[in-house]
# Entry
Amino acid sequence: MNKPGGSKNYGYGRKLEYAVHNALLDKFGDGRFSTRHTYESRIQQFLNFMRRETVRDLRRVTRDVITGYTENLQAEIGAESLTATTAVHRLSAVNVLMSHVRQDNALLVSPSKTIARRRHVRESAPIGLCVTDFNDLFVDLNRPYEREMTITLALCRFAGMRFREASLTPLADTLSELLENAACNVVHGTKGGRRVHRPVPASPALLHTLEYAVATIDRTNIIPPAFNYARWQSFAYRNMPAYAGALNISQGFHDLRAAYACERYLALTGHDAPVVAGERLAPKAADREARDMLSVELGHSRRQIASSYVGTSR
# Structure
């Protein structure tokens, strides 16, 4: 194809989507509609990221921009809102686009090396098990939104929520439900928008968390008024290393979710989780029942996925 010309986007057009469409048409030709459509779909998230970072021209994409996008994908994997496979596809598509428009490989990033693939059987006990009370999560780092960060961490630890679920949970309604039913149903921000019965049992630590949240935050959920969800997620994951270091909770949000699973496994079976004990101590039937319950409470559809939180079932 002939380039539309102009100074923006390497001559492929002034608007980003139009320029990407033309660049992929130039690379793949007019007859590979399905391939081009797939790549455009995968690249759309990168364009959204560029806009959030106020980068509105493909010529302004640098190594730092690609690194930031890669970290964003890693954050989504950590929040369990994205699979590693999907993240690899998205980063690979960006590689194809940038290599073509630049006509070099200067910004090429290896998806297999930068996008960590999740291990299906957890082999190390979550450090977050040391967090047993809401007050354990209070640190004075002199950073903005420390209260919101603390509550988010607590909901991951004491309710087993994903980051997105903790962020979008209606605080007052959830507290009322917990007091009335001795459990709360996680329905907001769930993976894939699943609306299933997912009761999380009450505990003193979870009750303390929600009472504090309702008393100190005068809005529906944790997300600060200055943020939408995407900006809040970006802020939280940028600041998470400081909290993880101060609290000694290593992997942060997901480590705390695994700690919830291990604690619940102990409550359900009377035995430490295999990843804590080093082997399965619970009878096989009790182990299976606990994994079934955990798959419900954690928002998964398969018993096998519990191995990535509590360890082997063998």
